[in-house]
Amino acid sequence: MGRFTQTDAVFDNEEVLTDGYTPDTLIAREDEMSTYVEVLQSVANGASPRNIFVYGDTGVGKTLATEMILDELLEDQVEFDNVSVEVVWQNCKDATSYQVACHLVNHFRDRNQEIHTTGYPRSTVHRKLWEHIEDTDATHVLFVLDEIDSFRSDDELLYQIPRAHTNGNITETKIGLIGISNNFKFRDELSARVQSTLCEHEIHFKPYDADQLQEILSQRADEAFLDGALSEEVIPLTAAKVAQRTGSAREAINILSNAGFIARDNNDSTITDSHVTKAYHQVQSGVVKDELEALPTQSHVVLYTVLSLARQGRTPVRRKVIHDQYKTIAQQIGRDTVSTRTLHRRLNQLSLKGFINLMEVNKGSNGGSYYKYEFNADEDIIADVLESESRVGQIIGQHAD
Ligand SMILES: Nc1ncnc2c1ncn2[C@@H]1O[C@H](COP(=O)(O)OP(=O)(O)OP(=O)(O)O)[C@@H](O)[C@H]1O
Ligand SMILES: [Mg+2]
């Protein structure tokens, strides 16, 4: 039986690499922060807040930057005359617009006075919210709705909050809304009435490049690891790999911490590129697994088809060839085949998810062009996950020669 000891060969403080840890400084987001300051200046001046829509891929610092700017505002407001700001932060992951409205009401209530998140007409919940806002001592209430993507087509709350003044629901307290989303499709699908209010000001967080990721990782590594535990190539290698695929700081930090765990588990006192490679594989498998789970089984079959063509060295490949191969595979595993049009849609979806790449090929003097497909993601990782996680992969595994 293993025994525990209180020693660690690599970590000084592994907490620093967890998602809940807040670093002291925000790296490489000067432009986004100065836009925030410009837009929030109205609040400092005692005027009505302007609404802000913040968007960008996952892990690019949207939550962290917003937390930091609002902390600064709350700190600085002590000096302002006639301004007192209250921030109401709500994470909306997996919640509906209606449930979030109930949570906002409950922010203003004692525990034993909280309302249930079902059963009230929506208008009643909103009325309660307006009453609480009007009753608060603050001059300004800033709502932050983080991860609003699950609202889907029901964006009523995102319409109501910015309109509460104009619609006469609130007269005294000034309110503003910061909505944060990591889904570009969600932004485009917001109704026109929400776009014209919430999206009055937009801040786009772009993926980090390799240099920025290196800086973020170095800041964490200094605190997280013991002196000398990290060999020189680790941070540049991690940053380069992540910049190539997602540009997500969260992913980069995860890989660094997993590399540390792998080294510790092996009783190695130095973290090297081989630990990073293993950690990258581990983290990517997790990401691919989550993404695959969200796709229908037919897409798994299509992905497997492209994978098998890639393994035969036949990529980039035209859609017609994919369709022929797909029919053979679907037959092999006893699945109905889909039409060429559906296959086209599945291929588009897979390319949106970053699994495959679409390249346009010009026909030359005859004019016109056609598409070829190739693998974008790491083949071995996809193959592992498909074979171990997907029902399709398991069936294919049994049928493989
Ligand atoms: N500029 C930065 N400097 C230092 N650390 C950063 C920076 N950007 C992100 N991080 C760290 O990366 C992780 C992810 O950042 P954050 O949670 O802000 O991403 P996000 O854009 O809100 O992602 P999601 O859309 O998934 O919510 C956090 O641990 C955060 O501390
Ligand atoms: Mg976030």
Structure, explained:
The chain contains 16 helices and eight strands. A hairpin with a 6-residue loop joins strand 7 (356-362) and strand 8 (369-375). It is globular. The longest helix is centred in the last third of the chain and has 21 residues, at 273-293. Helix 8 crosses helix 9 (234-245). A five-stranded parallel β-sheet has the order 2-3-4-1-5, sandwiched between helices. A three-stranded antiparallel β-sheet has the order 6-8-7. It starts with 29 loop residues before the first helix and ends with a helix. Helix content is 50%, strand content 12%. The chain has helices at residues 30-44, 62-76, 97-107, 122-135, 156-163, 184-189, 192-195, 210-224, 234-245, 249-265, 273-293, 297-311, 319-332, 340-352, 379-389, 391-399, and strands at 52-56, 85-91, 140-146, 174-181, 201-205, 317-318, 356-362, 369-375. It folds into three domains: 30-205, P-loop containing nucleotide triphosphate hydrolases (Rossmann fold, 3-Layer(aba) Sandwich); 208-292, Helicase, Ruva Protein, domain 3; 296-399, Winged helix-like DNA-binding domain superfamily/Winged helix DNA-binding domain (Arc Repressor Mutant, subunit A, Orthogonal Bundle), CATH 1.10.10. The protein is α/β, with parallel strands linked by helices and 401 residues long. It comes from Haloquadratum walsbyi (strain DSM 16854 / JCM 12705 / C23). One of its GO terms (biological process) is DNA replication. This is ORC1-type DNA replication protein. GO terms for molecular function: ATP binding. ATP binds at residues 60-64, 208, 220.
